[in-house]
Amino acid sequence: MSELQDLSALIRANTPLIIIETQDEGRVVELFRQTLMHVWRALHRWSITEGLRRIDMDREDDPVGPPDASSALQMIRQAEQRGIYLLLDFHPYLGYASHQRALRDLIQRRHCEAHVLVLVGAKVELPAELEALATRFNPRLPDLNALLKMLREEAEAYARENGGRRVEVDNEAVQKILHNLRGLSLVDARRIARQLIFADGALSQDDLPQLARLKFELLNRAGHLHYEYDTTRFADVAGAN
Fold this sequence. Notes:
This protein is an alpha/beta fold. It has 2 domains: 3-136, Rossmann fold, CATH 3.40.50.300; 144-222. The chain is built from 9 helices and 8 strands. The chain has helices spanning 3-12, 25-35, 69-78, 97-107, 128-131, 144-161, 171-181, 186-200, 207-222, and strands at 17-21, 42-47, 51-54, 83-88, 116-121, 135-136, 168-169, 202-203. The strands form 2 sheets. Strands 3-2-4-5-1-6 form a 6-stranded mixed beta sheet, sandwiched between helices. It has a two-stranded parallel sheet with strand order 7-8. Strand 2 (42-47) and strand 3 form a beta hairpin. It is elongated, with a radius of gyration of 21 Å. 26% of the residues are buried.
């Protein structure tokens, strides 16, 4: 099944607690918006800075209530319509026993609707008693098409910020760059690609040592990386010659 089908199945099953570890919150939000075409739920997003708001497919309402974690859990418990709640960087607040208890009550559907709660963060560690109730969902890493699209976007961004100047492209070097970005999250791949492009307005063989250095830094930071090598064709990067 596809990533979208996998996630839709979890929602359809009313999975009470889903954990997603990622740095790309925007991609997670967009993925859940896409699931609404397959299984309808009211979709909400919470962060400590913005509070709780409904977002759904093509809307983004104003926040409701105070932004703190306690208020958010209370509003979820009182909601009269079952929904999906994306809780961004919520896990640090589970250090409080009252928050753990409130979350457990929601998971076990005590005096509330059958909500789907989703904890999203770069690294989400839960108390053992909550981990036992959670389902971890791992977003798939971007494929070559997604990486190629990202390169186009960064080339367009460079052109916009440099008076329409196009990125100079060595197609053979770009193929190697794409291959070596495989296995990275889209956030990390974009960060590297942006540095390579904005350094000199070009993607060339000269970028390969810098790419290796940036990957090595990621390896040290993350502890491990997995790379997949394949063949692809680079064609018509927007904003590039």
